[in-house]
Amino acid sequence: MKKFFKTIQNIFSIEDLRIRILNTLGFLIVFRLGSFIVLPGIDPDKLGDASTGGIFGLLDTFLGGSFSRASIFALGIMPYISASIVIQLLTVAVPYFQKMQKEGESGRKRLTQITRVLTIVITAFQAWGYLSATIPDEAILYSGIFFHVSSVIILASGTMFCMWLGEKITDKGIGNGISMLIMIGIISRLPSSLIAEMTTRGMSGALAFVLEIVALFFVVMAVVALTQATRRIPIQYAKQVVGNKMYGGKRDYIPLKVNASGVMPIIFAQALMFIPPLIAGIWRESEVGNYIGSTFSNPFSWQYNLLFAILILLFTFFYTAITVNPNDIADNLKRNGGFIPGIKPGKQTSEFIDQVLTKITLPGSIFLAIVAILPAFAQLAGVTSSFAQFYGGTSLLIMVGVILDTLQQIESYLLMRHYEGMMKSGKVKGRSQIAAA
């Protein structure tokens, strides 16, 4: 306990780190306050629970309850994530966007502007579907085209403000801003879900509740192990004689993470899974709309979980391919006089790293998909649906990934100031360490 308080003291003694932590807390407070501001023209007492079940309930968990409250942040950051998915797919498939991505800082700025414009377009469609599918007619005080148009504009503005908050947290705060906003929304719903589970079990089910917590502990440990697992490729640096001294010759390794993409495949896949129910809400009078709505509005159905797992597998390979470039790693090794024992520098090194990356990404993506659909199995075992969402799945993966990333950044500040790290042995490893490799 003494070491814990000493670490807290060291953290707040670093001025830059202290300012970043306070900035992050301030931005998160603004985000939480905005989630309680209801859209004009809506009576919150008549909203009921129309938007708190099924897939909408899961979305409400990510947004910290703003979805069910019909707040100005009802769509949160999800449209921006959807736009980012589209742009990243275009940078892989369309030469124009590939060229733009390789133009350096100017190209990235143009891609950012395109992503923002696309976010507004996606938000407009999702906002119209949200108003049509989830808001009861009796809750709308002044129905008509003016209400829908004004609400769409307000929801789009709320999403853009959330995006701005996320960017500010990344620039002036600690951690990844977009992931941080999603995590704070998830954590805000955890206490109420835990209390609801305890109330449901009662005194007669105390043993079952304890077993649930123990099982959840092991699931968390498995997720942490998945996030931290690495495949070390040994490398050797050539010896160089300069004057009377010899340099180089040291041994090192390349730490390729089993889950190099982190939580991004989960976030991307989850963002796409929110689209079918919204589309079904717009065409709810048709048979196709009813089929899509009944099939993909339940996050515990086998159809939903099968599609969700497939999307996670695809996005894991896709995001790993665009974040870890074997050619760049091989070129950096060659320039620095490093090589993998038994492998020729250059193209063969790149091919070897790509093969290893493919071999470790496949089991990593499968395990990631299994963890993501664990809530469905938890519900089958008798866990309530609200608490089952935290029993693995997207919620747990996002929380573990974001917390580890944030702790890794804090530890980097401590080590740069020659303080002790946050652990006695070893280091907190985050996704950003793969970039250093």
Provide the structure class: mainly alpha
How does CATH name the architecture? Answer: Orthogonal Bundle
CATH topology: Preprotein translocase SecY subunit
How large is the share of residues in beta strands?
5-15%
- What is the general shape? globular
CATH class identity? Mainly Alpha
Percentage of residues assigned to helices? 55-70%
Q: List SSEs in N-to-C order.
A: HHHHHHHHHEEEEHHHHHEHHHHH
Question: Could you give me the name of the CATH homologous superfamily?
Answer: SecY subunit domain
- How many strand elements? 5
Number of helices: 19
Organism: Fulvivirga sedimenti
GO cellular component, one term: plasma membrane
Subcellular location: Cell membrane; Membrane
Membrane topology: Multi-pass membrane protein
Q: How would you characterize this protein structure?
A:
This protein has one domain (2-436): Preprotein translocase SecY subunit (Orthogonal Bundle), CATH 1.10.3370. It is 68% helix and 6% strand. It has 19 helices and five strands. The strands form two sheets. The chain has a three-stranded antiparallel β-sheet. Strands 2-3 form a two-stranded antiparallel sheet. β2 and β3 form a beta hairpin. It is globular, with a radius of gyration of 24 Å.
